[in-house]
Inverse folding.
């Protein structure tokens, strides 16, 4: 879906590296204190747009015959609510279900930015003064890791809230293999690995999918720059990849949401 | 692809979005949907109640109808009985009245006949006297005729 402009001056690797680099702003001393403005602004705009739309509909929600907008929002609402209901058997309405709705819609919107043609967008941003601009916040490891870490913290918070601090620590040592004293270190090691692997797999799955999708769009864009036949086939394959990508975008958002719900539900259960 | 401050910024954005959804988006939607679900459930229950009430009313009306039919039959039977009785009474009354009238008329007729007989008797006597006078004027045989006259009078 990319239209290639002005790559004569760039080698392929420079082209890709350019498209995969962030618009970084230094906010403090050291390599950590840098903000990826493009990621942050895109995600905030999308969050405000998506949740704002839902909020506008929800504010005027009626119990009578719903408007088309409300019917659509209720469709999404019921979809999320049903999923959460099947996994979590507590009071889901006070926190977990709304969190799932937020995660699903926000991640979906951020994933969907992959459909924007990379080069046209880059040119447009360049025209208003941004040298570099990456449109897909979920192909930034910072975003996915931030979400996964937030869920991880919530997970530990709920585990302690439900079982008490003592109960949680007890569970770290006494499950899953039982209470014989010689398996206690094994239990702890097992739980430690679980706690480390959860946010990693959670965040890297989404990041990997979106990053790979973006790279393939870039490769197709590069092919489109090689001549007439490259442009034609690049466009056809780009369209195909876009259509397939609709599935990936929705699926990854759904998986991310489901894992969030599953992790939070597991935190509520005692072993 | 290195971890930097964006991580913290995104986590904060995420927290704010969750807070916003928990506070402002989820409750009104949940309320609207749950209210509608309740309304639908109430409507269905009301419909079921209505159906039951209809059934009960149909049964009741059938019972009432049967009762009314039975009563009507009873009333018709009574009326028929009473009608026959009235007819019988009328018949016997008429018969008695007829007999009475007949008897009265018979008595009256007898009376009239007697009266006519008396009248006739008196007139015949007068006629006989007049006839005797005429005969006497022509041939007076007082003795012979007086015997004949007394004989005649005795015969009447």
């Amino acid at each position: 879906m990319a239209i290639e402009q002005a790559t004569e001056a760039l080698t392929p690797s420079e082209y890709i590296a350019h498209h995969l680099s962030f618009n970084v702003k230094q906010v403090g001393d050291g390599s950590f204190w840098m903000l990826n403005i493009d990621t942050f602004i895109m995600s905030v705009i999308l969050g405000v747009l998506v949740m704002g739309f839902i909020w506008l509909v929800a504010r005027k929600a009626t119990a009578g015959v719903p408007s088309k907008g409300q019917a659509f929002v209720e469709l999404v609402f019921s979809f999320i609510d049903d999923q959460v209901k099947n996994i979590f058997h507590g009071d889901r309405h006070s926190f977990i279900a709304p969190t799932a709705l937020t995660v699903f819609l926000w991640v979906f919107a951020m994933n969907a930015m992959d459909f924007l043609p990379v080069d046209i967008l880059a040119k447009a941003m360049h025209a208003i003064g941004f040298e570099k601009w990456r449109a897909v916040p979920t192909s930034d490891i910072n975003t996915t890791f931030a979400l996964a870490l937030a869920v991880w913290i919530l997970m530990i918070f709920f585990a302690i809230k439900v079982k008490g601090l003592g109960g949680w620590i007890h569970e770290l040592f006494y499950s899953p293999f039982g209470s014989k004293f010689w398996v206690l270190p094994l239990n702890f090691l097992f739980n430690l690995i679980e706690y480390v692997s959860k946010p990693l797999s959670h965040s890297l799955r989404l990041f990997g999918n979106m990053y790979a999708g973006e790279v393939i769009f870039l490769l197709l864009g590069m092919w489109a720059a090689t001549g007439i036949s490259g442009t034609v086939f690049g466009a056809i394959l780009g369209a195909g990849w876009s259509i397939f990508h609709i599935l990936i975008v929705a699926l990854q958002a759904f998986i991310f949401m489901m894992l969030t719900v599953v992790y939070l539900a597991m935190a509520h259960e005692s072993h | 692809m290195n971890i930097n401050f964006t991580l913290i910024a995104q986590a904060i954005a995420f927290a704010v979005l969750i807070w916003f959804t928990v506070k402002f988006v989820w409750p009104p939607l949940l309320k609207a949907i749950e209210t509608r679900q309740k309304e639908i459930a109430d409507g269905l229950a009301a419909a079921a109640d209505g159906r039951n009430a209809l059934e009960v009313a149909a049964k009741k009306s059938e019972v009432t109808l049967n009762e009314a039919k039975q009563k009507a039959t009873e009333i018709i039977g009574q009326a028929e009985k009473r009608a026959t009785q009235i007819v019988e009474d009328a018949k016997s009354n008429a018969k008695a009245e007829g007999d009475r009238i007949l008897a009265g008329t018979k008595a009256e007729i007898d009376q009239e006949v007697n009266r006519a007989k008396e009248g006739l008797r008196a007139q015949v006597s007068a006629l006989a006297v007049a006839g005797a006078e005429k005969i006497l004027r022509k041939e007076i045989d007082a003795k012979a005729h007086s015997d004949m006259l007394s004989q005649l009078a005795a015969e009447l």
User: Anything to note?
Assistant: The radius of gyration of chain A is 22 Å. Residues 1-7 of chain A have pLDDT under 50 and may be disordered. The beta strands of chain A are 24-26, 34-36. Residues 12-268 of chain A form one domain.
